[in-house]
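Hi support team,

I submitted a single chain yesterday and got back a structure, but I'm not sure I'm reading the token output correctly. Could someone confirm the output below corresponds to the sequence I sent? I've pasted both exactly as they appear in my results page.

Thanks,
R.
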Amino acid sequence: MYDICIIGAGTVGANIARELAKYKVRVCLLEKEEDVSCGASKANSGIVHGGYSDEPGTVKAELCVKGNRMYDQLNKELHFGYRETGSMVLGFRDEDTKTLEKLYQYGIQNGVGGLSIIDGDKVREMEPYVSKDVKAALYCANAGVTSPYEFVVALVENAVTNGVELKLNTEVTGIEKRDDYFIVSTNKGKIQASYVINAAGVYSDKIASMVGIDDFKITPRRGQYVLLDKEENYLASSVIFQVPTELGKGILVTTTYHGNLMVGPNAEEIDDKEDVSTTEEALEYIVKTARLSVPAFNMKKAITSFAGNRPVSNKKDWVIEESRVGRFINLVGIDSPGLTASPAIALKVIEILKSAGLNFITKPDFEPNRKPIIKVKEEAFKGDINAANPDEHIICRCEQVTEAEIVDALHRDLPIKSIDAIKRRTRAGMGRCQGAFCRSRVKEIIARELMIPIEEVTQRGKDSPGLPQRVKRGDYTKF
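Hi R., thanks for writing in. Yes, this is the structure output for that exact sequence:
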């Protein structure tokens, strides 16, 4: 019998699990995929937003600003990768100034620090490669970038270290409410819990319907991206937006935490929650629109494209509440800036649980710290693909990932055995060649370290091939 069952190990569920790990409560975290961070949490912009985009008084606005201010301390404890870069919202026409002023006022009311409206000359002084057509911009010093999948991995790893039970490959198939507890049916048996937290992202409406709640609907909003080589990262030092539309914050240009240039996303509402494909038409639109902000990026340096689905609900704001089914906590429509707000969402859920009757006693032995997996390589680093020392033995040439880093990832508290799980923790396979050189070598290390047959090592779980043919890269040059 658990005190709390959390459904969904994305960024919201992971933050809640880690926050609950500070208390003497028995918690299980369920994830239907083979690893954590397999939904929108691994396929988003990785932007830690300042908090000026959302209407004052909304849950989004309140929690975005609070969450933003929590990242620096979280990164000091968990070492997932965070850098405060600042952001700009570019205006190209005289009428865009009204939008910038509106966002500025939103930011002031929301309590955002480091805000100013700057003219085009100042924009180009700070970002020399921005278009000459930019007339003004809203600058926010408090925005930054993070590695979203590493953030989730770090949170869950630390939660498990502190007593949370993680159950991967565990899909919820039904929920039955008894007097003061729930029976959660899964593909791996039944779980009893006094409280259930629905953090299932695009599937949160499906989970809620299992207890008879059907007054909201989640529509997947797909966002596609293009990732370019690190050689292009000189083009942007901050996160560069355009004035937003009703569908979102628009096409951005940014340097990722690990140094790639990235452009996107678009916003398209789709029917299939599993459809994370990319299309030539959308990528062409993204590239064309991004060039309005930063014209000079070289599409010959594009290394991959990807997409993620954001959970957009038919509600005007996020819903974070104890539902009409007592002790069933709903988190509905946590779209952008959900990544930014997720640490603050977790604190709000703790307060909801307290109000719902759960008794919280602080753990005196909670361990807040987690060591990084990726080791920063100094200029004097002498890695080699033939080195005998695991600390110097290079497995992934593009990202300089060593054997020791992969072995470290495999022997931590999260049970993993897929090539993609290693990629999310070490970046092996994320470079120019997209795993063509290192994929088979990573597979051999996984099999050796876990003492399993090599054919059991798959790309991304039980339904994926063990060693797929390399996917032909798109012809990005025509964009």
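A quick pointer for reading it: The first strand starts at residue 2 and ends at 7. Let us know if anything else looks off.

Best,
Support desk
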